[in-house]
Amino acid sequence: MNCFILLGPPGAGKGTQAQLLSHQFSIPRLSTGDMLRAAISAKTAVGQRVESIMAVGRLVPDEVVMQLIEERTTAQDCKQGFVLDGFPRTIAQAAGLNEMLQNRGIDLNHDLVIINLEVVTDKLVERISGRFACKNCGQSYHKKFLAPRQLGICDRCGSTEFIHRQDDTEEVVRARLLEYEKQTMPLLNYYGEKIWHIDGMQSVEDVSGDIAKLCDARQKERK
Predict the structure, then answer these.
(1) Does the active-site annotation cover 14?
(2) Residue 223 predicted with pLDDT over 70
(3) What is the pTM of this model?
(4) Angle at 211 between CA 206 and CA 214, to 5 degrees
């Protein structure tokens, strides 16, 4: 079982690294943001509840996100593990996640890897405002740091349709960063020495390389 938690402020590169881990270990990337946006698009009860909250950069209530996570992680493709991108964000969510994992027999010391991507706050606005994604498959890109290999065509599925998130404007980004500092930063103290800190200001390849070294070290510890 390989379960990963990726921590870091908006724009730290969690989505990109989560996708790489997903491919490496053949486990799904679970993005609470994607799940919530899908619920909004589908106009579900959850989607209608959180649409106005997300539009101004506030955090969605813990019980709503926990419900999504619990339902999603029971799927067959999560039997060998999963990568959590954007969850947990609060200590209450972290405690709920720990309880859920333990109830399923997952060893928090051996099966769970917690990674914090450290970045310089002043550079996050530039990172976030340049993000976009494939409308068809969700592959993440950045106009400066991670553009498609062929302009206008998704590397993964070949689609020519891309989307830019409405909550990636500078005003909303700054609100999200403030919310992160207030509610999510305490997670670093909560997890303490269980966290592996990675320099998120490196290139995508270097960050991925550091995470790969970490995973190799963890695999050796298990043997």
Answers:
(1) yes
(2) no
(3) 0.73
(4) 130
